[in-house]
Amino acid sequence: MTISAKEEAAAPARRRDTLPVRKIVRRKLSDEVFDRLLKEIETGLYAPNAHIPSERELMAAYGVGRPAIREAMQRLEKLGLIVITHGERARVSQPTAADVIGQIEHSARHILMTQPGSLSQLQDARIFFEIGMVREAARLADAQDIVRLEAALATQAAFLDKDSGRFVAADMDFHTTIAAISRNGVLEAVSRAMLHWLSQFHASLLLWKGHETVTLEEHRIILNAIIAHDEDAAAEGMRTHLMRSRGLFLSPTAQVFAPSPISNMTA
């Protein structure tokens, strides 16, 4: 089979037509500086709490101007990777799990306010999470953990019908203390974050008569199960507690869509 000269000439044109279009984009100098500094931090060239070279030193090392250095440093600061203090060289941060999760605070609130169903999904995630947490608490709790839980419950009881804000703070403290028993900083940080995000929407939940008393009773049931190291009873107590709370939250009589400071949440 022979190919005519006309067909052979057309072949390169056809190949060019089928090539994917991938334009070459010129990167900003600050992007290059950012990538290099990020790699140096990640590989340990600059250890946590170590100072990064000054702007002048970086300009000389990378052969770029001050604006590129500053823009890259600001991006690193936004990510929580470095700390910039006026008059001092920037230093590499040593973030905790809480710091990392805190980076998504505003994005999380935006999702909850704008995406239908996201608030209900967060509540479902919390129920799943806290049932697992309370099982760990029942398995691992020592005498000091029990003292802390008893103190949170006593504080909550002291503010019953007196100070709803402090009652709620003690309520949240009870739940985060359970998470802390895991001795896992990531789990504790996630617990605090979920409670905080939900608190922005729970504030307008109407307090039904006797609701606070029921909350205290349910907390006592959970605590007794933890004291007895009964994982199943603790998990069932938490499931009952949070499912009731979820039912109140989703009640058609509860106004829940305008985030505001905590005042009436009990869960």
UniProtKB/TrEMBL annotation:
UniProt entry keywords in alphabetical sequence: DNA-binding, Transcription, Transcription regulation
PANTHER family with a match to the protein in the record: HTH-TYPE TRANSCRIPTIONAL REPRESSOR NANR (PTHR43537:SF53), TRANSCRIPTIONAL REGULATOR, GNTR FAMILY (PTHR43537)
Species name: Acidisoma silvae
Gene3D superfamilies, A to Z: GntR ligand-binding domain-like, Winged helix-like DNA-binding domain superfamily/Winged helix DNA-binding domain
Domain of life according to the entry: Bacteria
Name of encoding gene: nanR
InterPro entries assigned to the protein according to its UniProt record, in alphabetical order: GntR_C, TF_FadR/GntR_C, Tscrpt_reg_HTH_GntR, WH-like_DNA-bd_sf, WH_DNA-bd_sf
Pfam families: FCD, GntR
PROSITE patterns recorded: HTH_GNTR
Domain HTH gntR-type: 27-95
GO molecular function (one): DNA binding
Cross-referenced CDD domains: WHTH_GntR
The organism's taxonomic lineage, starting at the top: Bacteria, Pseudomonadati, Pseudomonadota, Alphaproteobacteria, Acetobacterales
Name the record gives this protein: Transcriptional regulator NanR
